[in-house]
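WP5 quarterly update. Target: Nuclear transport factor 2 family protein. Source organism: Bradyrhizobium zhengyangense. Length: 157 aa.
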Amino acid sequence: MGALTKAAQAEALIRRYFQACNDADHQALLDCFTSNAVHYFPPGLPGAPWRGAQAIADGWVWCVKTMGSRWTIEKVLASSDGHEAVIEWTHWKTALGEVLRGDEWYVFNDDVTRIAEIRAYYASPVNKAETVNKLHDFDYEARGYAMAPPSPPPKLS
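Structure tokens (predicted):
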């Protein structure tokens, strides 16, 4: 089997990142980012943006421990040169009974081995009165999106 294309390499890195998030694997998360990476979020998230691999890893491990967070990747589109990609995702906050859907734009380092930047966009404003935050009248199930978390959150101490 030949080497991965740059686009496939970018997608594999994103999938590795999401697996590290779901596993709450701090070291694996660090390994996905440049040391000075930045993760931007829509307004309202305390402490955002998260600056640096350490802050990003700490943030996602905290989410798993505190909110029972689980994530699924719904769609991936990577540029042919592998330097940028966009995805659709679902964030399952199992301990809160909430679901958030959105998109992220990724920028990678030159050899597409680490994430340098993520810009997150939510599908809709977070409405705490709703258990599932989503686009109005969009049929997620019919389009093949995950309708449940990928697995229970890991037991963390």
